[in-house]
Amino acid sequence: xxxxxxxxxxxxxxxxxxxLLICIALIVHNVFSQNGFLASRxxxxxxxxxxxxxxxxxxxxxxxxHENRALKSNPAAIERLAREQYGLAKPGEKIYSIPGxxxxxxxxxxxx
Length: 112
Prior knowledge:
Blueprint: H1 2-32, H2 37-73, H3 75-86
């Protein structure tokens, strides 16, 4: 009877150990596999970054569309752009530039 009792205890212990090892293997697989927890977390972060980039681009696109419509229909917007970016002036006007305070892409005014 004792032999049967020892065999049952050893069998029970080995069964528990096998189930424990299977559980550990499943947990490791779920965490580190190609579709596991870490990969899912990385994809969520990437998705969030892409959504923020899309929102920034949409905002920029709306601003450019607004500026485009203004340049097509508003002469004051065209004049403002010509003055700011190209350094143009109306006849008789003088442009004064302060060194180090202008934008890098604006050309120097031509003397008349």
